[in-house]
Each structure stands twice: as structure tokens, then as C-alpha cells.
Records
---
Amino acid sequence: MTEARHEAHERASWAELFFDLVLVFAVTQAAHVPVVEQSWTAVGQTVLLLAIMWWSWVGTTLTVHGIEDSDRQRIFLFACGLCVFVIAITAPHAFTGYAQPLILAVAHLVLRLLLWDAMRRKGSFAHAGTLGNWFNPYTVTVLSALLLVAAALAPPGGIRNGLWIIAVLLAFAGPALLARRLGTVQFGATHLPERFGTFVIIALGEMVASVGSEAAQANLGVVSWGSVVLTFVLGCGLWWLYFAYGFSAVEHSLRTNQVRGTVVRDVLSYGHVLLVIGLVLVSVGARTMVEHPTAIAHGVTGYLLPLGAALYVSAFCFNRWRMFGAATVGRTTGAAVLAVLAVAAPLLPEIVMLSLVTAILLALNGYEHWTVTTGRPLLLLRRAAV
């Protein structure tokens, strides 16, 4: 009873929310890369940048989780925020030149060392033996950060991109490699869902901000205003998919699962990064549909809106499978339809594509609302979680 009462009152501190503001800027910087250089390489680089920003945010959030708000914690969050701020400033130039990539890599290394030392002092892995606090998932991310330093010193192009990919994969492998240790760490069931939901809001806000800024600078006609309205409705549909039903499912799973570390790893850390990447891709794709909505999309950005939406909906299927052992038929079907729709991107005017994606998401939300309010069971794709 005491634990439940304590969890019910866990909330993000004001210092954590200030740290989140830095991530708002960081996500904007990462999303700007494929806007300037419209290529699949730029999209891949955006995903890599988002991955280290995400892992930096997750690491900081888990480190301060369960610690009372204090001056020491605030200074720690400010120090982490400064590192992320530097990463965000240099992010658009992470794959060109040498000076700014090196500044980014050093800031990232300092951040990872701060997180590793804080987790070591916190003692969350003391149960794993003498070396438990010295060798934890954060140790792996320090090694990953050293690879980014090497990448900054490598010539731009294939070698640097390859080192980035290896570094990101190594960072994400940390919790999986040390799953047994992570499974015994205690996590609160209220604070973490709220924090990860906040990052989803940040990613949704990027779409509103990017489309809004593009619209504010353009000479909009009637059809363009229609695109603006559709984009906002699309954002509402994306919000509804997560916060109407998804958020409560995550909180319920974390509260009832005997091994909370598994939910934190698979659903929050891995599953939610797919949600965020999907939302950012939607943001980049929607931004190009404001000024010339009747034109047929050319190049990479024309594919990003339906692909991002498909990834976003697919992430829910993965998360539900990991939480409850089965994905819903509705969201699996929706993700498949959106993926197929992406193939037609070069054939349709942008406003038609925007309208179709929005209609699919609204239909999915409407179906789920009807199912829940009428008391009907959700149709599931049965498959045991591993």
C-alpha cells in the first residue's frame, strides 16, 4: 500500500521538464537534416542522430528516476542538458567536416561518462556483485561514445557513417546484453510512463512547429490552407492513438508485470524510439505538403509521411506484443495499409496522400473507439512473447 501511494504521487520535477526543453531543440535539429539534403542517406543520418538523442534522454531519465528532487540532482540534470544542447547545435553538421563532429562526439562522451558515474553511485546494480556498479548498461554506452569520437576523426562518407551505425547498435545492445541485471532493478509504474509520454508529445510538437513555420513563411492559397488543417487533424489522430489507449496500456503493464525491467527495456526504451522516429518522419514529410499541395511528390520526402505513419502504428503492435503477448488486428492492418500506400507516393498529389493517411488514422481511431465503447473484445493476433 505504501509503495502504491508513493508511485501515485511520482511526478516529473521542474528540472526534468527544463531538460526536456533542450530535447525539443535537439529533435528539431535532427529533423532539419533531410529537409536540407533530400536523400535516403540524410534520412538515415537523421535516424542515427535521433537514436543518440533518444538514448541520451532515456539514460538521463532512468538515472534520476526514484531519486528525490535536490540541488545535486538539478545540477546533474543541467550538466546533462548542456551536453545535449551542444549535441543539438552540432547535429546538422555531424557527418560533414571535422570540427563540429568532434565537438558533438566529445559532448556525447562527457554525457555518457556523467550517466555512468551517476548510475554507479546510485548503486542500482550492486546486487550483481563487486563489479555490478562498475559494469552496467551505461558502461556499454561509454564504449559506444568512444566510437563516435573515432567517427568524427574519420573522413566523411562511408567510414564515418559505418562507425556511427556500429556505435548506435552497440548503445542499443547494452540493455539486451545485460538483461539479467536490468531485470532485477526496481522501477516506478507512474513516473516512467509519464516521462516517456512527454517525449511522444515532444515529437508530436515537432510536426506542429515545422508545418506551422513552413506555412507562416509561404503565400498560402485555399488548397494550402486545406493541407494545414489536414496536418493538424493528422496530429490529433496520432495523439489519439497513443494517449487515448496506448498510454494507459503501458502504465498497466508496468504496474502489473513481475519483471518491470523487461517492460522498461522492450516497450519504453526500444518500442518508444520507433514511435518517435515515426513521428519525426511524418513531420518531415508533412512539412513539404504545405506550399505545393497539388504537386506530385518527387524524391525521398514524398515517401516519409506514409512510411513514418506506418512505423508509428507498427510500433504499437510491437509494444502490445511485448506487454501482453499479442498485437491487435486493427493496428496491424492499419500499419500494413499505410506501408502499401507509401508505394503509391510518387503517383499521387501530396494533398491526396495527406488526405488518405489522415483518413486511415481517423478510421483506425474510430474503429477502436467503437470497439471499446460497445464492450466488444479487441481482435488479437495471438503469438506468445519471447
Note: The two ends are 31 Å apart (CA to CA).
---
Amino acid sequence: MDRNIRTTDDVLRLMDGLFARDADRWTADASSWWDGFYADREKPVPFFVAKPDENLASYADRGLITPGRALELGCGPGRNAVHLASLGFEVDAVDLSPSALAWAEDRAREAGADVRFHRGDVFALTSTELTGPYDLVYDSGCFHHLPPHRRISYLALLDSVLAPGGCFALTCFASGEGGMGSELPDEAFYDRGGLRGGLAYTPESLRRIFSDLAEVELRRMHDEPSDSPLFGEPFLWTALFRRTAGEGV
């Protein structure tokens, strides 16, 4: 008989275990799944292109973000990390997949970009070596692969590493017409034991989840044509939040 639930982390790990093993996309155990996903660099996946997100470029162009320390969560093949480095940011970028990071390192080397890539679980790494403070935390496609209970871990991560006055920018699956991702209610994912490819969000839900931060902008990502130097798909939300200058690490 096990009676070993004592802390919030114990509860979170218990809830992780309610999902089927092959549903895992958020712990270190999921690295092999992501390795398979990134193995073929020629696969026609929209975000495999060597282009930064249009919203990220727009934030810099409009002066909404300025160079400082940046942390990218779930960097994949490194397209946004490389862009941030080109803007003068000091960049740490994290991903679970060795295959994705090998591709990202190739891109950084070709671009002459100085990026520190880290392999592992963002929740573990940001409690050890990636302790902040960061002026920008950027997430393009990591958050929507988390099960609902791991939003608690995610908010704790932001609270621990985001600098006073720092920005948090997010790109995630949008609900509604033309959106992508599952629109099932949170509790349904525990009944089914999977995440259905990722969770879709409404603007209202994002505002509620990140209500401790000040909203700067929340909109659909612009649809960028194939010949654009930027990546943009309208099935995604883009959001920029700022931490109050008097709060944080």
C-alpha cells in the first residue's frame, strides 16, 4: 500500500501518470517521440522552415521587446532562438529532443549565432541551471502540449525566472473557426488518457491563466505567404504579456 502523496510535486507526478505512456509530450521520457518527429528535416511541417515567427519579429520591430537575456521553451530546430541572437539577445534555448537540438545547433552555426542550447525537461532545468532572471521568455508551441495540471508548473516557472518588467511571449493553438488542437474541457483529457495532439485555447482562457501578467497584445498569428521571410499560420494565437516592474526575481 502506497501513501506517499505529500507535496504539490507528488500530486503533479501522480496526475502525469493518469495519461497513457505514448501520450507524453512534456517530460524527458518523451524525447524519443520528438526525435522521431524531427528525424526527417525535409518533412513538410510548417514550422520546420528557417524563419522566425512573425509576431516575434513584430515585437522587436515595434520596440515591445529589447535585447537582454532570453529563454526559449521548446525551441525545436532553433529558428526563433537564432533570430533572437541576431537581434542581440543573450539566448538560452531548451528542448527535449537531441535531434531537434542537433538541427538547431547546425542552424546557429550556419548563421554565426551564439545560442546556448540545453537538452532536458524545462521544469527541471529552470529549477537548476536556468535560474534567470530573463528579460524575455518565449514559447512557440510548447505550452499547448502540456496537460492541464502542468499549467501550475508552467506558471511557477515563469514566476521564478521572468525578470521584473520582463516579457513573456506565447504562440499556441487557437480554438474556434480555423483553429487547431483539441477543444475538449480540461477534465476530459484525464478520462481519455491523452492530449489529442495538443490543447486549443480561447483568448479568455489565456487571459485568465496569465492574469498575473499585464497583457500587451493578444491576436491571431498573421498568415504569411510561402515567400515571406517570416513564419505565420492563422491557426495559432500570439500573445505578449509583461511582468509588473516591481515584481519578480
Note: The two ends are 41 Å apart (CA to CA).
